[in-house]
Design brief:
By secondary structure, the chain is mainly α. Helices cover 72% and strands 6% of the residues. It has a two-stranded antiparallel ribbon with strand order 1-2.
Length: 172
């Protein structure tokens, strides 16, 4: 029964995508929004917001990054990240260290107290993904991931080539 309903949903999505090319955009946006919302529901009572969790996770993967570099990775304004880092620093989870040669640059590091929080956020993320993928077979999960990675690569290359073209136009 579940496989039949999954196939029905897939065929409806295919038919819809054929008639409305923007459907993919809307579905991706809705899935991302719902994942964020569900994560927030699962994380209630954890003491941190989704944005704070995101800062911790990105910092764990990019330990020693500058504050402005982390803002760029997170695609947020530097002042927005500054407020998040202020709060996480007040919680004893992050520390700022001055850059050795550039006075206005802060280098970010996780504090030991962040490590249990990282374990907690991974469990919350696993739970949220598990809920999202509940009726998706292992084969479809793999295919979905591969397809999304190709989409990401295509868009990254398009964005980078667009930026390179802008630099050539701007700088002669």
């Amino acid at each position: 029964m579940i496989a039949g309903s999954t196939n029905l949903i897939i065929s409806e999505v295919r038919r819809s995508m054929e008639t409305n090319s923007s459907t993919l955009d809307f579905v991706l946006h809705d899935v991302a929004r719902l994942l964020r919302r569900r994560f927030e529901q699962n994380a209630r009572g954890s003491g941190l917001t989704r944005s704070q969790w995101q800062v911790l996770m990105y910092l764990a993967q990019n330990e020693g990054i500058s504050q402005s570099g982390l803002a760029e990775l997170l695609d947020v304004e530097p002042i927005t990240l500054c407020r998040l880092v202020d709060k996480l620093q007040a919680f004893g989870l992050i520390e700022r260290q001055p850059h050795p040669s550039v006075r206005r640059v802060w280098i970010l590091h996780l504090m030991p107290a962040a490590h249990p929080k990282l374990i907690q956020v991974r469990k919350l993320g696993d739970m949220t993904r598990s809920e999202a993928l509940a009726r998706v077979s292992d084969a479809h999960r793999l295919q979905l991931l591969e397809t999304l990675q190709v989409l990401k690569l295509n868009l990254t290359e398009a964005c980078n080539s667009s930026l390179a073209g802008q630099k050539r136009v701007t700088h002669g």
